[in-house]
User: Fold Competence/damage-inducible protein cinA from Candidatus Electrothrix marina.
Amino acid sequence: PELNLLPLRRGGSVENDNVLCRTMIGEIIAIGNELTSGRITNTTSAFAARELFLAGHEIYAMHTIGDTPKLIGEALKRAIRRVDFVIVTGGLGPTTDDLTNEAVAEALQRPATLNEAILEKIRSQLRDPDGQLDALEKLAWLPEGAEVLSAEERMAGHLLVHDDIPVFFLPGVPVQAQKLLVDIVLPRLSGWSGCNKYQRMRLYKTVGLPEHEINQRLMPLEQEKQVSVGYYPVDFEVHVSLSVSGSSAEEADTLLNDAEQRIQETLGDHIYGMDRETLAEVVGNLLRENRLMLSTAESCTGGLISSQLTSVPGSSEWFAGGVVAYSNHVKEVLLNVDRDLLRNYGAVSGQVARAMAARLAARVGTKISLSVTGIAGPGGGTEEKPVGTVYIGLFYKNKVKDTLHHFSGRRKEIQEMTAQTALDMVRRVLLEK
Assistant:
């Protein structure tokens, strides 16, 4: 059955000095057989929804549709009837299965017209215009009335305003769509809504508490007028959204400050970051503030922790490097782990985890070192040490400790939970006074 969102269009309005401020409600439509078949994960819709939320907008529906013009047209017409803006991704390319513009032409009665500027842009970028132009000319045919979003890109995306509703068409390639969304779409929507000065948004990222417990702790805050709280499990974290609205910028700021203080007091150090921060970024900032270099010794995670750390720009300031010591031989040779420890306690043990962290710190000269060793599965487990058994070691301030964890799930999930828990262990020890 069709969702009835009509009463929610342009919701949350407040009047102030004859200026109407509103929260804009949107819908995202992702197009492509590669998405509906499961060959490609639809990361763009999640990225768009998160960025739109942080900009003060709300997404009430997200759809994934194959390259079928009739279904695309139906979804588009339905969205235009019930929300304030629509974002469509995919189906804008030059191949025969890129059918978004054809669907728009049919559904909205907007026949395709040749955009000479785009055509010239394509021609100027081709080494052999005569041989390739025919294949790429499709990119220059846009629905009647469409406005090109960027003059710099060949796959520029476009904006079509239909029945006073802005519809943004973005490329299916995630990096292209995300750049256009941040650089062009969000500023354009901000100009339409006029709402940012009255609404404030925050996204808190937490670890170590289940969703239901966070909900119980924050229930009193949910009862407050002009305050909205939401809970979203993301991978092995829980994200808490906070939205406040007021009749003036000052009131909205006051409401936000009060609500933020209550959330921080209630959840404490389970909050690791806000908005777009990642756990690796937070750890990196703490290491930088403490003028520390971190080293890592990984077994069961196979370099995942190092990968997450080095994905942060500027990580060379606080990350010395890591060793993937998968076999016992490498643990002995590169980390100087005693053979007797491995023989007596096994590679998956607190004793070995501590030795990995301490010996690596000594070998590379860092004051803090992290290690992980465990059984990620699906095989290798025993009754004494089942799959999911993980030891995390940490060397800091000339002391070394280990913690034992029992994770569940598939191999990748166990590795990701191990990496997250290990980084959070570093975060917490650096927060200690």
